[in-house]
């Protein structure tokens, strides 16, 4: 079956930016598939949004697992026949707990784990879902990145997180170039420092402010930006 309603997937969405992006897309009339690795927390998050009258459903997704990604693709194909929006939000930030923020103390395993979720996870999920966009010649993919990944302003500290976000930005460019000529727009976004479990209580931005550019990129008109890196709806340096 194919629905006329636009369908969106948000990864890592039981809390923080993913949860708020799900809420804001649903408020715009999208059917949102809220995904997370933790089924209990994911279901609870979807139910909370349902109580707000929003069209949100839960589906489990472990972005580090091929089978999990393919199961999600099969579910969407069978239930909706298409996908309009993919927000690749799932990410981990484990530098500090892995013992030391210096690159000279960084454990290769910390980088490996971080890349598995923050980069390979995005690649895996996008590969699994892209045909659902290609067949209708429409799609919007938003990769949630960070200013920490900017080569033009690269600092020190949190090396695994930084390297993963730089690689994610490269992936965004490759996706966008390969999809040129199709109405599938792929962009990266830096949401800024946001009050979430990852961002901490001292962050200056609310989740609503953090997802504004994510939702804007997810709902771009045809001929909108492609292969860009944005903060506050403005392009920023790579």
Order of helices and strands: EHEHEHEHEHEHEE
Q: Cα distance, first to last residue?
A: 41 Å
Query: Helical amount among residues, as a percent range?
Result: 40-55%
Rough shape? globular
CATH class: Alpha Beta
Find the structural class using helix and strand composition: alpha/beta
Strand content: 15-25%
Number of helices: 6
Rounded Rg: 17 Å
* Total number of beta strands: 8
Mean pLDDT: 95
What CATH architecture label applies?
A: 3-Layer(aba) Sandwich
Major β-sheet profile: 8 strands, mixed
- List the domain count as a whole number: 1
Return residue spans where pLDDT drops below 50 for at least 5 consecutive residues: none
According to CATH, the fold-level topology is Rossmann fold
- The fourth-level CATH homologous superfamily is NAD(P)-binding Rossmann-like Domain
What order do the strands of the largest sheet run in, or round the barrel if closed?
3-2-1-4-5-6-7-8
Brief characterization of the structure:
With 238 residues, the chain is of the alpha/beta class. Helix content is 41%, strand content 15%.
């Amino acid at each position: 079956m194919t629905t006329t309603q636009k369908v969106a997937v948000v990864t890592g969405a039981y809390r923080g930016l993913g949860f708020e992006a799900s809420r804001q897309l649903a408020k715009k009339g999208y059917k949102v598939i809220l995904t997370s690795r933790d089924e209990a927390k994911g279901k609870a998050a979807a139910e909370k949004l349902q109580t707000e009258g929003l069209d949100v459903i839960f589906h489990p997704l472990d972005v580090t697992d091929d089978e999990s990604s393919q199961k999600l693709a099969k579910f969407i194909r069978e239930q909706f026949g298409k996908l309009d929006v993919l927000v690749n939000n799932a990410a981990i930030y484990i530098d500090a707990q892995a013992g030391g923020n210096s690159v000279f103390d960084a454990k290769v395993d910390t980088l490996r784990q971080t890349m598995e979720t923050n980069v390979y996870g995005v690649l895996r999920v996008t590969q699994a879902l892209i045909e659902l966009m290609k067949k209708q010649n429409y799609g919007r993919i938003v990769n949630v990145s960070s200013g920490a990944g900017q080569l033009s302003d690269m600092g020190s500290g949190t090396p695994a997180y930084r390297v993963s976000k730089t690689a994610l930005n490269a992936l965004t460019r490759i996706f966008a170039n390969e999809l040129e000529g199709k109405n599938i727009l792929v962009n990266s976004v830096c949401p800024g420092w946001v009050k979430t479990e990852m961002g901490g209580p001292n962050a200056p931005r609310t989740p609503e402010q953090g997802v504004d550019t994510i939702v804007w990129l997810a709902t771009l008109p045809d001929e909108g930006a492609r292969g860009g890196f944005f903060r506050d709806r403005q392009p920023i340096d790579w």
